[in-house]
Amino acid sequence: MALQFEAFHAGGLAPGWSLLVQGHSDSGEDQFEINFLSETGDIVFHIKPRFSSATMVANAFQGGRWGQEEASSVFPLVLGEPFEMEVSSDAEHFHVHAQEHKVLQFAHRHRPLAAITRVQVLSDHRLAQVELARKGLCWG
Hints:
Layout: E1 3-8, E2 17-24, E3 32-38, E4 43-50, E5 55-62, E6 65-66, E7 70-72, E8 82-89, E9 93-98, E10 101-107, E11 116-123, E12 126-134
Antiparallel strand pairs: 1-11, 2-8, 2-12, 3-4, 3-11, 4-5, 5-6, 5-7, 8-9, 9-10
Protein name: Galectin
Main location: cytoplasm
Domain Galectin: 5-133
């Protein structure tokens, strides 16, 4: 799997950041994942769509081992179709949306959040756009 995008922010990427990935799922392989990493190299949040089982799986790799995998059967992605995924965070969770549907939320397993400094998108699919942005606060 090829590294398609990598970004680093010394002040931390959670909470308040949003990652938007747009692409095309053009093969039957489960060759797409997003990883948020700590400054020590642990994968504090790993999200991967599994087209073969129509599930979205999330986990964390800390201290040299994977934790308990969490899976969601909310899977609005279709092979051969364009897709859009967004990962955002607040003080308690990472939130994953695909095709504007809430897919899952994943409780932070790593503290402090400011130590989450890197994000990677690995994919063998064609990615049209990857955008990392600090979300503004909205007052309603």
